[in-house]
TrEMBL record:
Pfam families: nSTAND3 (PF20720). This is AAA+ ATPase domain-containing protein. InterPro entries: AAA+_ATPase (IPR003593), nSTAND3 (IPR049050), P-loop_NTPase (IPR027417). It comes from marine sediment metagenome. Residues 63-188 form the AAA+ ATPase domain.
Amino acid sequence: LKAFPDIERNHYKLWLTSTNTLQILLNQSTYLDSEWGLEKIKKFSKYYAKTSNHDEAKDLLEKVHSVIISGEPGAGKTTLAEQLCLEYVLCGFELVIIEDDIKDAKNVFNKMGKQIFYFDDFLGSNYLEGIENKEDSKIMKFIEAIKDDDNKRFILTSRSSILNQGRNISAIFKNKNLEQREYVLDVTELEDIDKARILYNHIYFSQLNESYIEQLYIDKRYLEIINHKNFNPRLIEFITDVQRFDLISSAEYWDKVEDSINNPKDIWEHVFHNQLKEYERILIFIIVYFGNKIAEEVLKATVKKYFISKNILTTNIQFDKAIKTLSGSLITRVIGGESIFFELFN
């Protein structure tokens, strides 16, 4: 059948007994997410500058077969994780991207095959409540299951603040010594040469006109970027994105770059005005109105009342999706006692 896939497709009774085919049919969403995710990772790889962080995280991954990459927003956690995944794919591993639930990994687990599982922001959005439903236990069981399997690797990412909250409320995370699998990505510890590589790669592969790029070389201005206290990969991506500066002249470009590195809030301002949906912007306005901190149930009720006043119906699913989009970039999710609060990201 593998030699004649057209026959297999046209005669469904032949493949109804095929375990591999049934697995693909039943878990098509996971396979598609992984396929699309891998294409995105490949496209971004040209911007990636391999630093000492890459080798250190990989060494830990090889040692215990799973690694949690933690760090502050903008530090490059996701990029590091994705490029590690790509390296393993090039070595013959199948990439499995976990979107929401560890069961995605279990459903496509291949005992005999090489697989690398990737769970981005595994404690983000609504996942902290999952600890009460023993989701932490499921993750630790999966980690334990593959620790001695040379054909399996598991990469997870989390913001440092969220991971600390997870440890505080999960006895399982504490007892299983999650720290042994944690790799903390700290941009402030990057060598200048690594920062220079990150900046160079983004400039080289950007679509910025030469006249704009020349502005960065005048009086070695690029050193100001490399040595700046606010340096991080997300900021570099922002200042080398041609679409953000298409309305200004090359002579004005450096001033805009300086403003961006001195006031990183401009990055979030661009996201707010150009990349968010109306529903998401209203959520931000409400949080600001309540003094930059608001309980989840109050936020949900308030946004619902707002849209009712506009004769617009909204759903809980819409709320959950918006929170997932905003978490880690514009808002931070905090668990305090039995309540959940949202704050503006600082």
